[in-house]
Structures are given as C-alpha cells and as structure tokens.
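Whiteboard transcription, Tuesday session. T.W. wrote the structure tokens on the left side:
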C-alpha cells in the first residue's frame, strides 16, 4: 500500500485526477478494449472530478472509451431525486465529460428485484473483464462504498442496511432531517473492490483521521472495512494533512520517504511493459 499526503483537498484532487488520466492514457482504450473505471460519490472526490473535467476540456483526456461502474446507490430514492447517486454523478461529472451515457453503470436502487440487480451488476463487471481502477472514498466509520462496520470482507454487490452513524453523517444532504435519509443502499462489496486491478482511495478532512489510522496502522478488521485494502497488491490512499492527524509521525515519515523513490520504480515498470513484458506486479513499491 502507498500513502500520498498533499496539503489540502484541492491538491489531493489534482494528484488523483492526473494519476487517473495517466492510467487511462497509457492504457490507450478502444471501443473493443475500454478502460473500466470504478467511481464513488461523496464530497471527497469532488475536487478530483473538477480536475478530470478540466483535463477533458483541455483535450488531455477522453472518456469515449471508458466504462464506469459506481460504488453504490440508495434504495428507494427516485433516480431524479437531487440526492440520488445517479443525479450526483451526472451533475458533478458525467454531464461535463465526453462519456456516452450507455457506458455509465450505476446500481438501480428502485429495481423490483434488488437481489437480481446486485447479481447482474457483479456479472456485468465480470463480463467487462473486471475493474481496472476503482476510486473510492470512505465514511467516518471507515466504510468503503456502503460496506458498513461488520461487513464481510468477502462481500460482493448486495443490499446493505446503513449504520446509524452513516445516516447521521448523510442527513446533511437531506435538510438535516434523519427521517428523510434512506435506511438501505445497494453497494459493491469489499471483495468487489479488492478484485479490481488497482484501488485508489481519497481521504480528506480531520473527521476521517481516526478511520485512516485504524485502516493503515492496525490489523485487518471488519469494523473498519477500508483496512481490507491491506490485502490489495496495488492500493494507493491519497490524503490531505488534516486526515493524518491520528497517524504516528513514524508512519507519515515512512510513506513520505517511499514517495520520493516511487517515480523511479514506476519508470522501471513502464520500461518493462514497453518492451512487451507482462508486468504482474503492477508498478507499486508496496
Ligand atoms: N456511500 C458513500 C461513500 O461511498 C462515501 O465514501 C462516503 C463519504 O462521503 P464524503 O466524501 O462526503 O465524506 O459517503 C457515503 O457514505
């Protein structure tokens, strides 16, 4: 695992957007071989989306051959509700970039058969050859997607009841009225995320600091589902200074020191791939 620390949330967004753009551009996707990208909602990825939109506007990135799968969606919230994750994604990203809407996948929280919907989502990811890069965010309780504390670390896309803490945290989007926050969601599972070839998680703000320390400084624990990322061979967490508040100085120093040489390691992997070598390690110093 790698941890990248930037001064503030815009700098985090810029780093991640440039990183994703490089991955997509290096992959050189085509209609037959699209780049499969997993995406989150929430306030944390907003700066990333802003920079991605700018890269598209500047002609440095295209989503024409990108297929997306979103992490989650509320159950029972009309698709056109201002707080549905469908509305969010089109408002904050998809309407401003060149992705064909037919290449956007978001779970349908109003499906008649919710279990069938979840199974079909997993099958569709598989049919696309899996997710190349999953970008995620976390809740204050360390949940990734809507994998609340206690979620199985082998979980796949399914119906999930939301933890009271999450309902409280998300009430800000529903006029601070907790009775208006949906009680259930459909979400990709922890294992769905772990199966992606690469995972990047954005963690910003002091209110996420405890979750970050639990996830990277302690053992793998279903009460902090982000900690499952320790099992992933190619995982990157990008945080701002505020989110490091609970980390040991030693942890911060370690990750800063490996960042300095990571560029050299990446260059070696790029060279290896360019010569036709099959790079099973991914390119991570982790
Ligand atoms: N299901 C989403 C998560 O995927 C997201 O990571 C989290 C954090 O949101 P924010 O970034 O606004 O703190 O919110 C919701 O719970």
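and on the right, the sequence the group agreed on:
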């Amino acid at each position: 695992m790698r941890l990248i620390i930037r001064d503030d949330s815009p700098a985090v967004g810029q780093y991640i957007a440039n990183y994703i753009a490089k991955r997509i551009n290096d992959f050189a996707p085509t209609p037959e071989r699209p780049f499969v990208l997993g995406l989150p909602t929430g306030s944390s990825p907003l700066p990333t989306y802003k920079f991605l939109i700018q890269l598209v506007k500047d002609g440095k990135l295209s989503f024409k051959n990108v297929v997306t799968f979103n992490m989650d969606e509320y159950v029972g919230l009309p698709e056109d509700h201002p707080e549905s994750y469908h509305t969010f994604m089109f408002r904050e990203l998809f309407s401003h970039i060149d992705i064909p809407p037919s290449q956007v996948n978001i779970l349908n929280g109003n499906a008649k058969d919710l279990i069938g919907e979840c199974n079909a989502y997993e099958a569709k990811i598989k049919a696309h050859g899996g997710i190349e890069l999953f970008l995620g965010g976390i809740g204050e309780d360390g949940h990734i997607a809507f994998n609340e504390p206690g979620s199985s670390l082998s979980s796949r896309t399914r119906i999930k009841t939301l933890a009271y803490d999450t309902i409280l945290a998300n009430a800000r989007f529903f006029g601070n009225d907790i009775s208006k926050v949906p009680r259930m969601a459909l979400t990709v599972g922890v294992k769905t995320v772990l199966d992606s070839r690469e995972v990047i998680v954005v963690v910003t703000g002091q209110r996420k600091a405890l979750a970050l320390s639990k996830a990277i400084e302690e053992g793998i624990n279903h009460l902090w589902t982000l900690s499952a990322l320790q099992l992933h061979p190619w995982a990157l967490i990008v945080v701002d200074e505020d989110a490091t508040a609970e980390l040991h100085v030693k942890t911060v120093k370690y990750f800063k020191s490996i960042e300095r040489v990571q560029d050299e390691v990446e260059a070696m992997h790029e060279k290896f791939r360019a010569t036709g070598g099959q790079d099973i390690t991914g390119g991570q110093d982790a």
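Someone added at the bottom: The mean pLDDT is 95.
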